[in-house]
Amino acid sequence: MFKQFLSKFPRKSSSKAENNGDSTGNNNSVNNNAVGNGIQRTNSSNSSTVSSRSNVVKRMSSAVFPSSVVAGIEPLLSFKDVSNPEKQNLLISKLNLCCVVFDFNDSKNAAEKDLKRSTLIELVDFVASGSVRFNEPVIAAVCKMTALNLFRVFPPNYRSNGGGENDDDEPMFDPAWSHLQLVYDLLLRFITSSNLDAKVAKKHVDHSFVLKLLDLFDSDDPRERDCLKTILHRIYGKFMVHRPFIRKSVSNIFYRFVFETERHNGIAELLEIFGSVISGFALPLKEEHKMFLCRALIPLHKPKSVGLYLQQLSYCIAQFLEKDPKLVSYVIRGLLKYWPVTSSQKEVMFLGELEEILEATNMAEFQKIMVPLFKRIGTSLNSSHFQVAERALFLWNNDHIVSLIAHNRQVILPLIYPALEKNAQGHWNQAVLNLTLNVRKMFAEMDNDLVLSYQEKFEDEAAKLKAACEKRTVIWERLENVASFQPVTGNTAVLVKQ
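Predicted structure:
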């Protein structure tokens, strides 16, 4: 297949290329050192291996890799062997050569794979040097080569269909990474180069190109997702015209993940990008940005795999609250909407995030949501899972939260006092019992008369409940006695009087 593809190129190069042909094999040096501020490359061969293959490369230059049709430039020439006006044509020739994609699931075409890799390394170093300004044909060639190598359909994930018990399996690594890594490095150098005019490049780095990059975030290979994260962030920074489209497309990924599939490998990386993006939002926040928080970020608490990206999600929400503290009520109501009922581990995570939010909440916003919030906290205090109850009681270890509660104790204490009393009367875990007594003591120090009044109310309610329970017991005993003396036969109706 590879030779059939290359057979489309002319078999003879121009006279200038022929004159330089003898020195191609020796001058096509390979630099395996990582370029600063880029995607780090891994060395797959040492210098002795490269030199031992130089003769093979020389023999292949005419038979396997014919000259390019671009301005008659032989693609195996080194950049230092051509004049500055011809370097752009040579760059396009080398990019066209690297458009050939190999199958790394077999061991065929080993020499061609090595030659392509060395060409990619040479391209990365040349782009990083910044010696040539990129014209539109070069930009088109880079985007074409990148698309052919990177944009692909991932095989079906055979490990798990629903993100269940197998989510902790070892990540899958792409066997073609030795080439993919260099293509990503080249794309990053290209996007960040000062020689790239964004106004010209946006014709080729268009919405379709960005959308296909976003599709790659579902890769099983964490190394690929890390590269994509860096590149997408640079595209967002350089191409201002694409920013609304990127935000909308990422929102669609979140919607599909939350409400349809609940499976995506790159949610954490996408959130990490937006953590930086949100910090750059101008004030006052646009309505579009607030909708992104309410409709895209907050629903991400719903999936059961939220623990995989909760840290990045919490950071994004914290950035929004730092920009506009009035959004606290929206965030906390969203947390309460998606509050876990059957997952204790997830509830512990929610309580941890809730503490971080409350720590940045002012008094006015706290008063808007304190009633539904502490109804939920009261339920968590009575949880039979000791980690949930313990984490809820740890909220009183935060001085800012205690201050908020103290100023609104007449509203909050009635909501949680029954839960505190139930724990104090006999929670099975000693640590929870001790923490409950400490919290009750804190309330007594705040306002002892208020605590005593609610203690009397609690005792009265307990007495009423006990009386009602005894009454039900007596009624059931009467029913049992009547039933024992008047056995039911057939369809006989039985009238029971109290």
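Summary: Residues 448-485 form the longest helix (38 residues).
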